[in-house]
TrEMBL record:
Organism of provenance: Aeribacillus composti
Protein name from the UniProt record: YqhR family membrane protein
Keyword Transmembrane applies: yes
Transmembrane portions of the chain: 22-50, 70-94, 101-124, 136-155
InterPro entries: YqhR
Upper classification of the organism: Bacteria, Bacillati, Bacillota, Bacilli, Bacillales
Keyword hit for Membrane: yes
UniProt keyword annotations, A-Z: Membrane, Transmembrane, Transmembrane helix
Source organism superkingdom: Bacteria
């Protein structure tokens, strides 16, 4: 048997996975990670661990008061899921070969810094870091790190499986 032909557990030849299938996996990983961790962020908001809920992502687009209710938080989580697809592709481009948890941690912290230090004060009506409070900062960093690890490790694992 040649090295390019591998057999799976049923004894059949395993074919190389086309990129569009891998592309779809990245979309699913990004959307799932965004929705999952923003809903957990909403739970942290409800339990007063943070002052910022997922509805903050809608600040540029929604002008009515509905965005401040439960529907706004769920719509914000869905919107974050869509944005997370783009961040998953960014991770794929930058860190796909990193096969450890550290790539996801670094990605999550960098993403947090972009959102809370640059985008947040300018576009999302997030207070400057000095006025957010320790609970909000620590909780949001943890959520972003967990998102980064979820997306990062999932994509790196799929990439490694595709390469072998």
């Amino acid at each position: 048997m040649l090295n390019s032909e591998k057999k799976n557990s049923t004894g059949k030849e395993k074919k190389k996975e086309p990129f569009r299938s891998f592309f779809l996996k990245i979309v699913v990983i990004g959307f799932t990670g965004g929705v999952l961790w923003s809903l957990i962020g909403y739970l942290a908001y409800v339990l007063n661990f943070t002052k910022i809920g997922p509805n903050r992502a809608l600040m540029l687009f929604a002008f009515d008061n509905w965005k401040n209710g439960v529907a706004g938080h769920f719509a914000g989580a869905a919107f974050i899921g869509i944005i997370s697809i783009l961040t998953a592709f960014l991770y794929y481009v930058l860190f796909k070969k990193v096969r450890s948890i550290w790539g996801g941690i670094v990605f999550g912290v960098a993403l947090w810094a972009v959102v809370f230090c640059w985008l947040g004060p300018a576009f999302l009506k997030i207070d400057p870091l000095g006025r957010l409070g320790t609970n909000t900062i620590v909780t949001s960093i943890c959520l972003y790190v967990l998102f980064g690890v979820f997306v990062g490790y999932s994509i790196s694992y799929e990439y490694g499986e595709r390469q072998s």
